[in-house]
């Protein structure tokens, strides 16, 4: 699928060896924008300008990046590019571009010592075009993963996706998603899991993270490795469950219990938590950007961003958790008058479609399977 873009360009740059990258949206003219942040662990920069109460919600570009908080510094490359183009607020001696930035945590997938740089960001700007035909394992979605309740080794690949639609009044909405969710990704209608938490590192059976959590599963997301190792040791030595310890609080779903013995499940839980806590942090984020040529004020743009989060929760479950930094940005670049409710409902559906498209187009890498290409079937 190829999207034609009007009023803005999109560019990607990635390191396919280190499995990280970045994506930039460059607007032809200064654009109005607003954001809705629902996850509890976002990594952002320059987001205060997206608050409706600030003096100006005008932006010049949006930068999405891997590398977690480390990757936020790469926005300097976008600012450098825009300054050369004399884009941004004119302060007499130069122009200061306004570039809201959001990052995903991809350090556990590829080479954690390699993060997107200002040079990579500037290259993404130079490669930006007014069509979008690359999805899956590209740009900021290069190191994305989904379904991490049982740790990264039992996750699957996420990615970058897009979709577009038109209202009855002729306004176009473009939706873009970087899918790096803690939860599972479902089809539209939520009748089937497309990619998510697997029952074991070498199996393709999906565990249904939402069901597991509802039945009492708990994810130990933060804390030193030593503590987890001590808890794992106490379970191993006793040969039974140790009451009150985080390492044994993760209960599998009924479906998993039918396939695996309690001893195997405990081993999987402990190894998953230990592996995840080697970094000392957990961060999962789905980043949404919605661009429309409909005329919006900042309050209407905020409402459109909220509809983007609704579209996210339609196909990602669980979403907006304490382990996620889920957020949506809505941008208005046109003057077409359109009913806001219709715009939001179409935008909601397009965000869901973009998320599903990104996961379906992902490629396996770093020991993680993808929707179309499970690694256990690869030669």
Task: Describe this protein's structure.
With 379 residues, the protein is an alpha+beta fold. The protein folds into two domains: 3-189 and 283-372, L-amino peptidase D-ALA esterase/amidase, CATH 3.60.70; 220-279, no CATH class. It has nine helices and 18 strands. Strands 2, 3, 4, 5, 8, 12, 13, 16 and 18 form a nine-stranded mixed beta sheet that branches. β6 and β7 (95-96) form a beta hairpin. α2 (75-84) crosses α3 and α5 packs antiparallel against α7. It is globular, with a radius of gyration of 21 Å. The two termini are 29 Å apart. Mean pLDDT is 85; it is low at 221-254 and 256-282.
Short description:
The chain has 379 residues and is an alpha+beta fold. The chain is built from nine helices and 18 strands.
Please state the average pLDDT score. 85
Counted by DSSP, the helix tally is 9
Q: How much of the sequence is in beta strands?
A: 15-25%
| Helix/strand order | EEEEEHHEEEHEEEEEEEHHHHEHEEH
What structural class results from the helix and strand content? alpha+beta
Share of helical residues: 25-40%
Count structural domains: 2
The CATH class name of the largest domain reads Alpha Beta
CATH topology name of the largest domain, in short, is: L-amino peptidase D-ALA esterase/amidase
**Morphology:** globular
Query: Which stretches are low in confidence, meaning pLDDT under 50 for 5 or more residues running?
Result: 221-254, 256-282
How many extended strands?
Answer: 18
What is the subunit organization of this protein?
Answer: single chain
Can you say what the CATH homologous superfamily of the largest domain is? L-amino peptidase D-ALA esterase/amidase
CATH architecture of the largest domain: 4-Layer Sandwich
Largest sheet, in brief, is: 9 strands, mixed
């Amino acid at each position: 699928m190829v999207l034609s873009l009007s009023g803005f360009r999109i560019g990607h740059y990635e390191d396919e060896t280190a499995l990280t990258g970045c994506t930039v949206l460059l607007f032809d003219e200064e654009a109005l924008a607003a954001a809705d942040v629902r996850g509890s662990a976002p990594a952002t920069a320059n987001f205060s300008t997206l608050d409706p109460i600030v003096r100006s919600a005008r932006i010049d570009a949006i930068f999405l990046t891997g590398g977690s908080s480390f990757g936020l510094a790469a926005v300097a490359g976008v600012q450098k590019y825009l300054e050369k183009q004399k884009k941004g607020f004119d302060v007499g001696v130069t122009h200061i571009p306004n570039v809201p930035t959001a990052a995903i945590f991809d350090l556990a997938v590829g080479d954690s010592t390699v993060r997107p740089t200002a040079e990579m960001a500037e290259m993404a700007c130079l490669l930006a075009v007014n069509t979008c035909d690359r999805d899956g394992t590209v740009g900021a979605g290069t190191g994305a993963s989904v379904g991490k309740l049982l740790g990264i080794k039992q996750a699957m690949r996420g990615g970058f996706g897009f979709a577009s639609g038109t209202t009855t009044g002729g306004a176009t909405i473009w939706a873009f998603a970087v899918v790096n969710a803690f939860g599972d990704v479902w089809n539209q209608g939520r009748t089937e899991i497309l990619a998510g938490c697997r029952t074991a590192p070498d199996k393709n059976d999906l565990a249904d993270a939402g069901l597991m959590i509802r039945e009492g599963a708990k994810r130990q997301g933060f804390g030193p490795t030593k503590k987890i190792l001590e808890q794992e040791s106490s379970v191993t030595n006793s040969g039974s469950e140790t009451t009150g310890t985080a390492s044994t609080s993760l209960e599998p779903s009924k479906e998993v219990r039918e396939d695996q013995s309690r001893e195997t499940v405990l081993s999987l839980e402990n190894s998953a938590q230990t592996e995840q806590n080697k970094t000392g942090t957990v961060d999962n984020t789905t980043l949404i950007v919605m661009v429309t040529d409909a005329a919006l004020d900042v309050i209407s743009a905020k409402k459109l961003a909220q509809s983007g989060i609704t579209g996210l929760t339609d196909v990602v479950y669980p979403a907006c958790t304490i382990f996620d930094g889920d957020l949506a940005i809505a941008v208005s670049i046109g003057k077409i008058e359109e009913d806001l409710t219709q715009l939001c409902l179409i935008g909601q559906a397009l965000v869901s479609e973009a998320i599903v498209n990104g996961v379906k187009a992902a490629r396996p890498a770093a020991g993680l399977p993808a929707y179309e290409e499970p690694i256990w079937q690869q030669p």
